[in-house]
């Protein structure tokens, strides 16, 4: 039996805690707008297909938050402003924060943005109100043009994009900003992507394989050999940069490292349990990845999520399947399992 299998078998024999407990931080996504200045080729929100793109109203936002607080049975809540591009409805963000500043001081905030229209006014506000900022960025301007083109097709604005991101990190502090890159067949050279994001100033980075539309075009299954080499290289680079204080976290590597070494709990999909998402009309969904999908399809995915990983050696590290991943990729879900296993194998071989 391989070293990785032996280690995982021993790990699975131990009683492990997971993150699904009463003390877990409750989180909601508010899709404050359907509007966006990009038409990402994998977008789960289908922003480029919306003809009459709407903004969420304050009344809908307030009702959504109150419903979440009541359902969760707590006043502890984290709100992520999402979209679309949430800065297209910045006024609503300000109204929500102003309203809850005086009646609930236990609410924290973040925003998920492409950073294309972010400016000093936004950043001053986010800094003042202790926001955490997630930046959706898949690589260099050339990669951005391929995967995250402007909805208008107007591309020359990407020339200022790197400057914009550096300005954001400088103003917010690297500890308050994370780069989230969606990995497709266009940007599978993870080691180089990691170097590029470090160069921009990011110290928190998150790599996620594409799980949304355009799967045939962006299929990762044809590149598993390349990804295996890249992941092995990425694990080595992570440790070098972590020791030199150049990186704070690199997910999923840092998450799996902490679980394997007993420093963290297993992170299981919390969609519909400790996590909800509300669309612009206030309709509730288990998470932001499945907004707009039929209820029957989501319910079937929940059943699959809850029982499909029981006999897998890796499930006490990766935490099992993502609900959105199941909804979009029922036929090809093994590709994403294979990628998670590559990360875990590389870590075990490096650590032990």
The largest pleated sheet is described as: 9 strands, mixed
Q: For this structure, what is the CATH homologous superfamily? A: Aldolase class I
What order do the strands of the largest sheet run in, or round the barrel if closed? 7-6-5-4-3-2-1-8-9
CATH architectural label = Alpha-Beta Barrel
Q: Which CATH first-tier class would you pick?
A: Alpha Beta
What number of domains? 1
Q: Can you write the helix and strand succession as a string?
A: HEHEHEHEHHEHEHEHEEHHHH
Structural class: alpha/beta
State the helicity in percent bands. Answer: 40-55%
How large is the radius of gyration?
A: 20 Å
Percent of residues in β-strands: 5-15%
Number of strands: 9
Distance between the termini: 15 Å
CATH third-level topology: TIM Barrel
- Mean model confidence by pLDDT: 87
- Per the principal axes of the C-alpha atoms, what is the gross shape? globular
